[in-house]
């Protein structure tokens, strides 16, 4: 009985995920754009209301999925960053309390907010580009670069190299491409975010290098005098082996019949 109930919950949860996948992906990207605008320029009242509305929708979505999840602890483990990204905006809603205003001013909260929001955008990109690996990497790199630059600007400004969003964007782009920069963050939170951006840059650099190597090896393999066997060569070899196998089987049958 308990297992059947869990199966029914899983089916319902899967159905809700499929139904809300498109709208939640769209809202996830809007949420990220509003985060960048908030970190760099601040939100107007209208944009602030839109941000709070999206936040409320995310909370409802999270609570419904948590209720339907058969194993609550496993659900929290898989979505703990999402949960954090939903808790932090509450500091803005309840800013009438003095201690919450103090907490909101801490750079550490900005760092957590940036990382958790990037986590949501990564999930959205994964859902939209499941079979487009290289396109996914390119878009994800752009998302990390623009959002990371907004975070570095919000945390480090007005330090040299981060005194404008353009300079922070240049610095972040250099980190993502592993080129480096003469400027370095001064705050612990800025260093933490820089470390995460650098890790992402090294991971992407390895992927792009492997992709380019595979591309050029494939191009070389298409040449007639290529030292590397290509997919066409392997396919022709398989066909030849298949013909030889068929011929041998026919000869065996003839010998057996005689």
Automatic annotation (TrEMBL):
It is a multi-pass membrane protein. Keywords: Ion channel, Ion transport, Membrane, Potassium, Potassium channel, Potassium transport, Transmembrane, Transmembrane helix, Transport, Voltage-gated channel. The chain crosses the membrane at residues 24-42, 49-68, 133-155, 193-217. Its main location: membrane. Residues 45-208 form the Ion transport domain. It is found in: Membrane. One of its GO terms (molecular function) is voltage-gated potassium channel activity. InterPro entries: Ion_trans_dom, VG_K_chnl, Volt_channel_dom_sf. One of its GO terms (cellular component) is voltage-gated potassium channel complex. It comes from the Bacteria. GO terms for biological process: action potential. This is Potassium channel protein. It comes from Salmonirosea aquatica.
């Amino acid at each position: 009985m308990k297992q059947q109930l869990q199966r029914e919950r899983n089916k319902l949860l899967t159905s809700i995920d499929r139904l809300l996948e498109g709208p939640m992906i769209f809202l996830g990207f809007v949420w990220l754009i509003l985060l960048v605008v908030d970190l760099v320029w601040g939100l107007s009242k209208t944009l602030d209301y839109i941000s709070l509305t999206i936040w409320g929708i995310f909370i409802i979505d999270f609570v419904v999925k948590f209720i339907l999840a058969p194993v609550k602890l496993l659900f929290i483990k898989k979505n703990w960053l999402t949960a954090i990204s939903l808790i932090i905006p509450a500091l803005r809603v309840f800013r009438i309390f003095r201690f919450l205003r103090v907490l909101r001013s801490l750079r550490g909260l900005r760092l957590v907010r940036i990382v958790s929001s990037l986590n949501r955008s990564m999930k959205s990109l994964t859902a939209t580009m499941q079979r487009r690996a290289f396109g996914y990497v390119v878009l994800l790199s752009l998302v990390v670069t623009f959002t990371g630059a907004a975070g570095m600007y919000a945390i480090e400004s007005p330090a040299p190299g981060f005194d404008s969003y353009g300079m922070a964007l240049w610095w972040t782009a250099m980190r993502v491409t592993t080129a480096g920069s003469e400027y370095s963050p001064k705050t612990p939170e800025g260093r933490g975010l820089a470390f995460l951006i650098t890790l992402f840059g090294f991971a992407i650099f390895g992927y792009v290098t492997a992709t380019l190597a595979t591309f050029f090896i494939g191009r070389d393999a298409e040449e007639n005098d290529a030292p590397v066997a290509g997919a066409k060569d392997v396919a022709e070899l398989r066909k030849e082996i298949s013909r030889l196998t068929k011929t041998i089987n026919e000869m065996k049958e003839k010998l057996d019949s005689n």
